[in-house]
Every structure is written in structure tokens, then in C-alpha cells.
Amino acid sequence: MPSGVTPFADDAVLRCEGLHRSLGQGEGQVHVLRGVSFAARRGEVYAMVGPSGCGKSTLLYLLGLLDVPDRGEIWIDGQLMPRDDDAARTAARGRHLGFVFQFHFLLLEFSALENVMLPMRKLGRWSLSEMQDRAHSLLTSVGLGAKTHRLGNQLSGGEQQRVAIARALANQPSILLADEPTGNLDVRNSAMVFDLLTGLARQNGQAIVVVTHNPELAARCDHTLPMRDGQFVT
Amino acid sequence: MVMSLACITLGVGLFVVTQATTTGFERFFIKTIVGTNGAIRIEDRIQETLRTMEAERGNDASGFVVEVKEGRKYIQGIQDPALLIEAVRRFANVAGTSEVLYGAAEIRSSFKNEAARVYGIQLDDHLQVSDLARQIVRGYLADFRQTPAGTLVGIKLAERLQLEVGDSFQLQVGGEVRRYRVSAIFETGIGDIDKDRVFLHLGEARSLLRRPTGASFIQVNVIDRDRATQDAAHMEAVLGHSASSWQERERTWLDVFRALRLSTSITVSVFTLIAGIAMYNTLALVVMEKTKDIAILRSMGYTRRDVTRIFLWQAAMVLAVGALLGCGLGAAVTYGVSLMKIRIRGIFTADHFIVAWSGWHYLSAVAISVVMVMAASLIPARRAARLEPGDVIRGTAQ
Fold first, then answer.
1. Which of B98, B142, B153, B158: disulfide with B126, CB 3.0–4.6 Å?
2. Can you give the residue ranges of every domain in chain B?
3. What is the ipTM of this complex?
4. Measured between alpha carbons, how far is A208 from A212 in angstroms, rounded to an integer?
């Protein structure tokens, strides 16, 4: 079992068992994940590393409920996630999960503040002024307090990714999933974004799962999970 | 989006204009015919023709007769108009009745002779069941009222005979010739009436036509003219006289107007259809362009329904602006058209375009555009909602 992997930990905020996933159809079908089990605790950072096509991102999307496994189960905060109830999975994404992708995926017609407010608007936990205050505070914490009203396309790549981090933290998720969050940034910005992401998440007691090709960043995580051919390897 | 907006605006606007003009002319036609020939006309007496069959009689049983209806026989005219009018006035919807006696005559002026139809009326009664007062174009009704030999002559007939108010002319029925005076000239706008109708006082008509009793028909005015058909059927059943409503008498023209209104609606709805297609194309493109935005919204917890709503809202906003502009355009063009001059004679008299102002035209136009545009928008909106966020982010979305 790889370092840090505790599939049956009772205090795990995120847990999966025996995940299988095949992609493609017919003769082109590839068995990407082959019975993966994994658990993540609050306040800890997990790095999934491995060659391209080993199944890291596929596993991340399954854990993020963006995709449905062919077999296996996922628990979030102790609750089993149903495979065939899209509404329940969508609601769980809004409540428990935050995403940071390689590309920022900001809505470019909206300002940084509005982008950060988007998840909060759907969750409906805060009033408009509370959402604005919170979005402003999150943007300040990622160093963009002075650029809250800039549109997405008026920000640099590093700034856009920092807005994406603020947005991922907006609903106070218990789990933060990041797919190559620094893959599109230069070295200086990569280090800054990674430090921000892990620093804020640790501070808030959130579990972070990062998919990365960068061995330096992986080494700075609490746990490193090497993957090959759809499985964790020791 | 601009194309959709333009087509919605045009579709709504033109729908309103075409409905306003066709309905305007239709209503004016109805007003003309009801104002001339009344809402209901009661005339010939109905006699059911029966065949009797005697049942077979046995030795002890008593025989009986079975009466079988074979058809209807119409006995021309009304024998006792006063009695019939009294009965008609008991119908709740009846606003007025007028006893009319008519017959053919030859009219002679110093210029030429023409065939005419003489209508004997009690003026005050007839004014309650027609727009005769408003149809006077020359002369005065007061003159007719005060002059026993006074007449009201149709405008086309007067033109043919070169008669003017105050002129004398002769009416010949059978061998008898009498002299009358033109008190006023009327124009109903209905060519067939204006070319041969002459109104006389009822007493004078009885004398001229040699019919001292009875009437040709009773012209009835009603409070709610849309109920005329039901009332006519009821009167026919109760009074035993044929009764025809204006809808029944003018069915052909009413069908023409209805067909015209429908065909123009269908034609101008093509604009709304194009608006729907344009909206479909636009939204389909937007969905393709925004797949990543959709995926990111879904990853934040936005449901499929939320995604559908976002696209439908987009369509609804364009629709709302287009409908508003279309209603404004429709109202402005309708007003402009109402000022346009056009000379119509034959089925009614009009010297300019006649339009009807009705909220229903605007509601119908908006309703059609809502149905077409929203139905067209639903397909791309639902396609957007079906996108799987994982597929989009992985780059394998279809």
C-alpha cells in the first residue's frame, strides 16, 4: 500500500473502494482504473503522480463526482455517494467539493468577484452582501484584493488561477481537488499558486488531492501516491 | 441573437397589423350589415308537413294515428305582425323590433325608369333596429317623418335617376302610379341595397302594394349580437316563423373574412418561425462555445435544470425585448395604416383603412412568438444540460 493511503480510516473525509473505470468503446475501450481504493483526511495534502494515461485525472474526476465509476463506491463525509442519482451527486459537489483545474475555467464575461460568488449563489447559504464580503476576503487572501472587479480576461494566467483557487474555496468545501493546478504556469507562479492552495486548505482543515507531474510539488505534499496502469503502486 | 430579435419584432409587429386590419374590416362589415338588415330577421311562417298513418285495428282494440314529419312548408309573410312583435319583445336579448312590408315597383324620374324595391316602415321603430339615421348622406329624416309622401332613396338609385333631395318621382305597382318626394338619400355601403331600395311610410306602402294587413318580415335588434344565432333558433322554435341571424345570412362573407385573417396570421407567423430557427441556431452555437463554462458550473453544484434555465432565460430576455419592440412596431404601423386612404364600396363604404384596436391581437402575437421561440430554445438548452462535466473537462464531450 502506498504511503499515506488509508482506505478504511474512520476519520477520512473522502474514501473510495474498488473503483473501476473504462473509457472508450468497443475495441478502443481502455480499462483505465483497476480497483483503486483510497482515503483522505482533513488538513492533509495528497499528491497523485504518475505517467500520462495512468488514470490520475480519471480517478480525480470520479472522486469529484464529475464522472461515474463502472464499479466501486465513494464516500464523502461518511455518506455513500449514489451512482445513479445525478441530483444528489450535484448537491454533494456544491456542498463538499472544490475544484481547481489546469486551465482556470473562469467565466470570462464575469468579474473576479462574480466568479468567486458563483458557487455561493448556488449554495444559497449567505446573503448577497455576505457573499460579496466573503468573495472579497477570499480574493484578498490570494493577493487579488485590488483586482476584484476585473473581468476574467483582464487578468494574467497566474491571477486567473488564483481566482480559480478562491472560487474553489468559496463554499468552504471539506475536499479540494486539483488537476495539474500549476501545469499551465511558469515556475514562479507555480510555486506561489501551490503554496496558496495548500496553505489555505491546511488553514481551513480541508483535504486536498492534487494530480501533478511536478515531482518538486509532489514532494512538498503530506502524502505521495504514485500510480501506474490504473492502480496505486508502492 | 440580432437576427432572432429582428424576426421576433417583425413577427409580432406584422401579426398585430394584419389582425388589426382584417378584424377592423370584418367588424365594420358586421356593423354595416347588422345596422342595415338587423341582427335577426323573422319572416315566413313555418308549417310542418305531416303524413298520417293509421295503425292497424283489431276487432277489439281501438285504432290510433301516427303522424310523421315529412318536411317544412314556408308560408310567405307574417299574417299578424302585432302579435308576433309582442311575442318577440318577450325575449330577453331583444332591443327593438320593426315591422317591414316590401314589394317590387318601378320607379320613374324625369330622367329614366328603374326597378326598385319598396320598403314600408314605421320610422321610429326602424331606427331602433338599424343605423338608418347615420346612413343618411343628404336630406333629413325629420322631413321624411313629417311628409306622408316622403321617401328615403338609396344613393345609387338616386344617382341613376339623377334624383336630389326635394325632387319628385313616381312609383308604379301594377297599374297604379303614385307620386312621391325625396326626403333624404341614404348610403348603406352595400351596393345591392343602395341601388334599388326606397323606404316609404308603412301605411303608404300598404296602400301602394295593396296589402292592408300583414308584413313581409320583422327586423329585430338585439342587445348582445353575438347571441343572435341562439336567439334566432329559439324564436323559430317558439314562434313558428323562420328566423335568421346575421351570422347565418352573411355566412359566406364571414367565412371569407375568417379565412383571410387566418391566412395572414399564418403568413406573418413565418417571421416568428424564422426567429425560432435563428434562436435555435444561436443557442446551439452558444452551447458549443460554452461547454467548459457549463462544465464548471456543473462542478460547482449547478444542476441540469439550472443549466437549462440559463439558456432559456437568455432566449426569454431576447424574446421579451423583441415582443416589446414588436408590440410598439405593431401599434405604430396600425396607427399609420388607419390614416391611409382607400375607397371601398360594395359590401360596405369606407374611405380609409379600418383597424381594430384589441389587446387580444397583441396577446396572440406574443403568445405565438413565446411558443415558437421557447420551443426552439428548449432543444439546445436541454442539450447543454445533458453535457457531462467530466467528459467536457477531460475533452471527450460529444
1. B98
2. 2-32+253-394, 36-47+71-251
3. 0.84
4. 12
